[in-house]
Design goal:
Layout: H1 8-20, H2 25-32, H3 36-44, H4 49-55, H5 61-83, H6 86-96, H7 98-112, H8 117-122, H9 132-140, H10 144-150, H11 157-170, H12 174-188, H13 199-225, H14 244-250, H15 254-262, H16 272-280, H17 284-305, H18 310-335, H19 340-344
C-alpha cells in the first residue's frame, strides 16, 4: 500500500519538535540525586508542567509523578493519532495498540498478586484502542477469568481464552502474557507484505526487529523462570533472527545468543555498541535494558535513513517511552531507598 494520502512531512516536523524536548541523559543523572518532591519540581519546570499542576492538588510524591507521566504519555500519543492522516494513521495506530496489551497485562498481574486497584490504575497508560469505560470495568473485577470475559468482542479475547487452561495448569502468567504479545506482534505485519525499499520497508524492518528482540527476551525469561515450559511454544512469528529450533537451542546460552545477533547481517554492524552492553549484562534486567537500548538505537538508525517517514514517528514513540520509564524507575527507586548506583542500573541510557 502507498503512503500517498498521508501527511508525513507535517507529522515528522511535529515529532522532531517533541523529540527535542525530551530529557537528556544528563537530566536523568540529576534526577537520581533527588527525592520524589525534587523530581516533581524538576518536572514542573519541563514540558510536564501542565500535568504536575493539574494533578498536584490530588496527589503527591511518587503517585503524583506516576499519574503525571502516564497522563503526559497518553496526551502525546493521542496527539500523534490526531495529527496523522491516511496510511500514516493506520501504521501509527496499529503500533500504539501495544498500550492495550500493557494495560491488560498490568490488570492481570494486579489481580494475580492481589494488588490494590488504586495501585493498578496508577500503572495504566490510556493510549491504546481500549476505551476508558472498558479499562474501568476491568479494574472492577478480581478474577482473571472475568477479565477474559469482559474482553469478549475484542481481538484479545480468543487468545486469552485459549491460554487460560495452561495458566491454570502452570500457575504462571507467562501463557496469558505471551498470548497478548503474540496477538499484538503477529498482527502488526498484517497486509504490509514485504516491501524491498522505501519508508514502508523500513517500518516493516523495525517491526521485525522488535519481534526478534521480544523473542530473545521471552526465551531468556522462560529459561530463567525454572518453569517446565517449551521456549519454542512461545515463539512469535514475523521476525528474521530466529526460527523456533534456533531459539530452543540458544535459550540456554546467553553468549551464544548475543553472538547469533552480532553475526546477523541486519543487526550486527548497526548494533555494535548495544551488543557490547548485552555481553556485559550480568543479570536478566540488565540484558532486557540493553535490548531496549538496542531497539531504540535501531529505530534511530532507520529514521535517519528516512527522516520524513513513519520510522521517525516510531523512533520518537520509543524515545518517549524510554523517558517515561526512566523517570518512573528513578522515582520508585528513591521511594524504596535504592542507592544512586542501584537506580542507574534500572535506567535505559544510550
Amino acid at each position: 500500500m502507498s503512503l500517498g494520502a498521508s501527511n508525513t512531512e507535517y507529522v515528522s516536523a511535529r515529532v522532531r519538535a517533541r523529540r527535542a524536548a525530551l530529557f537528556a541523559d544528563e537530566d536523568y543523572r540529576k534526577l537520581v540525586r533527588m527525592g520524589p518532591s525534587g523530581i516533581a519540581r524538576f518536572m514542573e519546570e519541563s514540558e510536564y508542567e501542565r500535568e504536575i499542576n493539574e494533578l498536584g492538588a490530588r496527589f503527591s510524591g511518587v503517585d503524583l509523578i506516576e499519574y503525571a507521566l502516564n497522563q503526559n504519555l497518553a496526551k502525546h500519543f493521542g496527539d500523534l493519532l490526531e495529527w496523522s492522516e491516511g496510511r500514516l494513521y493506520d501504521l501509527v495506530a496499529r503500533y500504539l495498540r501495544k498500550f492495550d496489551v500493557w494495560n491488560v497485562k498490568t490488570i492481570i498481574r494486579g489481580i494475580y498478586t492481589e494488588t490494590p486497584t488504586e495501585e493498578i490504575q496508577t500503572d495504566l497508560i490510556r493510549a491504546g484502542e481500549l476505551d476508558d469505560a472498558t479499562l474501568d470495568r476491568l479494574l472492577e473485577v478480581d478474577a482473571i477469568e472475568d477479565v477474559v470475559e469482559i474482553l469478549d468482542g475484542t481481538v484479545y479475547h480468543d487468545p486469552l481464552e485459549a491460554a487460560y487452561e495452561q495458566f491454570e495448569e502452570t500457575g504462571t502468567l507467562v501463557p496469558l502474557e505471551n498470548a497478548l504479545d503474540r496477538e499484538f506482534y503477529e498482527h502488526l505485519l498484517d497486509d504490509l507484505g514485504r516491501p524491498q525499499e522505501g519508508p514502508e520497508a523500513k517500518y516493516v524492518e523495525f517491526l521485525q526487529a522488535e519481534i526478534d528482540f521480544r523473542n530473545a527476551r521471552n526465551a531468556l525469561r522462560l529459561a530463567r523462570s525454572g518453569a517446565d515450559l517449551d521456549p519454542a511454544s512461545y515463539y512469535i512469528e514475523g521476525g528474521v533472527l530466529f526460527d523456533q529450533k534456533e531459539l530452543n537451542r540458544l535459550v540456554t546460552d546467553l553468549d551464544e545468543l548475543v553472538d547469533h545477533i552480532a553475526e546477523n547481517k541486519r543487526y550486527g554492524k548497526r548494533l555494535s555498541s548495544a551488543l557490547g552492553q548485552l555481553r556485559e549484562a550480568d543479570s536478566l534486567i540488565q540484558f532486557e535494558h540493553a535490548l531496549d537500548a538496542a531497539l531504540l538505537e535501531y529505530a534511530d538508525t532507520l529514521s535517519s535513513i528516512y527522516p520524513v517517514s513513519v520510522s521517525s514517528v516510531l523512533s520518537y514513540i520509543l524515545a518517549k517511552e524510554r523517558e517515561i520509564e526512566n523517570i518512573r524507575a528513578i522515582a520508585r527507586g528513591r521511594e524504596v531507598g535504592l542507592s544512586e548506583s542501584e537506580i542507574e542500573e534500572e535506567l535505559v541510557i544510550l
